[in-house]
Amino acid sequence: MLKALKVNKLLRNLMVGLAAFVCIAAIATPSAANGPSTPLSAEVLDAQFAPIMMHQAEMNVREAESVLLSQNQMAQTGMASPTTYVAIMRRNQVVPTPSSTFYAYGTGGAALVGNTLIVRGDFTNLTSPLRDYATDPLDPPNPNITSGVHIHQGAPDVNGPFQYALDVTLRDSEMNGRFMGEYELTAEQLQALQNGTLYMDIHTTSNRGGELRGIFMPS
Q1: Per-residue confidence (pLDDT) for residue 71, from 0 to 100
Q2: How confident is the model over 196-212, as a mean pLDDT?
Q3: Which of 24, 59, 126, 162 has its CB surrounded by the most CB atoms within 10 Å?
């Protein structure tokens, strides 16, 4: 319950911040009657999606925690509860420029005990299917990149090196799905998680370098 409240508080702050930004931007932005639509429409949509992202992030954190409980990880480490994180994946966090997506969003929830990190998450309304690294590999190819959903290490303003790929299950279409992963983090990765320099991103066929991106933040 305490963890859920922390997640709600964090994402309520996100929603309030987005709403405030939208209100300020609307004052300075011409209406549709006065000219063509502007990129601010994406921020309006972010504010509308915020309640959905709040709910998904809370559910993903709870699911990640339940995996650790089922593995008896807390008892083995003597911890009362795991440390939890959320990653809100949005177009405007993609580096160096926002992606071409419009309605897409994603959320990740993670629970950490010792160096074991459990990740659960969702993505919705991608512009195109996930990038297939078997047919569209990096140069040189990296056999560890087995899906289009990744964890990277790097500051918010850079594209950091690949760390892990997540397992993906598609839903009703190739543009919607869930992802999951379980990893034993190195000391460097643990420090990056604590420093806010471990992030998730999603790569698609129309946004090969990244469509959505979000930093793991304490919940």
Answers
A1: 85
A2: 97
A3: 126
Q: Which residues pair with 85 in a beta bridge?
A: 110, 218
Secondary structure class of 15 (helix, strand, coil): helix
> Is residue 79 classed exposed, middle or buried when 0-12, 13-18 and 19+ CB atoms within 10 A define those classes?
middle
Whether residue 58 contacts residue 8, with contact meaning beta carbons closer than 8 Å, is answered with yes
Q: What is the DSSP string of 92-154?
A: GGSSSS--S-SS-EEEEEEEEETTEEEEEEEEE--SSPBP-TTTS--SS--TT--SSEEEEE-
First to last CA, the chain: 12
CB count in 10 Å sphere of residue 217: 16
Q: What is the pLDDT of residues 106-126, one digit of tens each?
A: 999 999 999 999 999 999 999
Q: What is the DSSP letter of 33?
A: T
| Helices 40-70/2-28 angle, 10° precision | 170
| Parallel, antiparallel or unpaired: strands 167-170 and 105-113 | unpaired
In this prediction, residues 149-169 reach a mean pLDDT of 97
